[in-house]
Design a protein that fits this description.
Elements lengths: L1 H9 L2 H10 L4 E2 H8 L3 H13 L3 E6 L2 E6 L7 H17 L1 H40 L5 H12 L5 E6 L5 H6 L3 E8 L2 H11 L7 E5 L12 E7 L9 H9 L1 E12 L6 H6 L8 H10 L2 E3 L3 E3 L6 E8 L18
Helix pairs in contact: 2-6, 3-4, 3-6, 5-6, 6-9
């Protein structure tokens, strides 16, 4: 019986502590072992029991395995909320359990600090490169203000941030989205984003590794899909746009922030840009080819490189994705 599996999974102090920790934030197995003061193999066994019962979920990111509270795909949301309420109530009424949880949370602070230090180190190593690029285009705050204005006051629903980088876009729009999936191919960037986003509700934001030309996500799963300063890295922009359309619900919005066409050839070598921006006609053609109806472009002057915002609406039946033959599942 389902209830039997759930209560057996919870019938251990380590697993109870693990569930309370996962209610605070997503953790790697090694980080969880550090907080609990137990060996990684032992913690992995406990985690396996929780995952088998549908109470937690694993997600692989390179050589790391991250854990989070279950999302409701295996167990109903009602059951998961009931378990969370039970544990929170128990902590308030059981001094011994409360003491263990408080000690765990103090140790969790060191995990947050380590992530922040890692992010700062990454920024220190790459700050010069980014500053040189930023100097060529409109200030970031102006771009963000224009993007927020273009999206309007309507809720963003389920938001996918493709090529999340530092996680800035996910952070910026967290208050307007029901849930956010932040995706990046680069593991180091994901760890930077995780540090930036760790103060937000862990049940609202999910970070996953993936390639924008072959998204590990289900069809028609998102209301809004954002590609912020990422499309110029694509050798063939039709691939990521086809994938963006595939995972967008009919009527959903695909938002692209990128450079207008320019002639700065040195960006190919200095910053790995595969495309030197896009003309409005090029972008409109790419969007239509992916089954997206383009809207009027928005131009932000104020730098040698002009930043553009293109917003399109996904039509009822998108064009076949270049990766349509592949099997796509959510890899949580």
């Amino acid at each position: 019986m389902l209830v039997d599996a759930i209560f057996k999974a919870l019938a251990d102090p380590t697993r109870l502590r693990t569930m309370r920790l996962l209610s605070a934030m997503e953790l790697a197995v090694g980080e969880l072992a550090q907080v609990l003061g137990q060996s990684q193999p032992r913690v992995s066994r406990h985690v396996g029991i929780l995952c088998d019962a549908g109470l937690a979920e694993r997600r692989r990111e390179g050589s790391w395995v991250f854990l989070r509270q279950a999302s409701g795909e295996t167990l109903s949301t009602d059951i998961l909320e009931a378990v969370e309420t039970l544990l929170a109530t128990t902590e308030r009424n059981d001094p011994e359990f409360a003491s263990l949880c408080e000690t765990d949370r103090r140790k969790l602070a060191s995990i947050r600090d380590a992530r922040d230090a890692q992010a700062e180190d990454y920024f220190a190593r790459h700050a010069g490169e980014w500053d040189a690029l930023r100097a060529l285009h409109s200030p970031d705050d102006q771009v963000e203000e224009a993007l927020a204005k273009a999206l309007g006051d309507a809720p963003l629903g389920a938001l996918l941030d493709i090529g999340t980088g530092t996680g800035r876009m996910a952070e910026l729009f967290a208050g307007k989205a029901d849930r956010i999936t932040a995706l990046d191919k680069n593991l180091e960037m994901l760890r930077v984003a995780r540090a930036k986003l760790q103060h937000l509700d862990g049940t609202q934001i999910e970070l996953i590794q993936g390639d924008f030309s072959d998204l590990p996500l289900a069809e028609e799963a998102f209301d809004t899909v954002l590609l912020h300063q990422v499309l110029h890295f694509a050798q063939d922009p039709a691939d990521p746009l086809g994938e963006a359309a595939r995972v967008t619900k009919p009527g959903g919005r695909i938002v692209i922030v990128d450079f207008a066409a320019h002639g700065r050839e040195e960006l190919r070598d200095a910053h790995a840009h595969a495309r030197l921006g896009f003309t409005d006609n090029q972008m409109a053609s790419l969007l239509r080819g992916a089954g997206i109806t383009p809207g009027a472009p928005i131009s932000l002057d104020g730098g040698e490189l002009i930043v553009k915002i293109w917003i399109g609406k996904r039509r009822g039946t998108p064009a076949p994705s270049p990766k349509a033959h592949a099997v796509h599942t959510n890899t949580r």
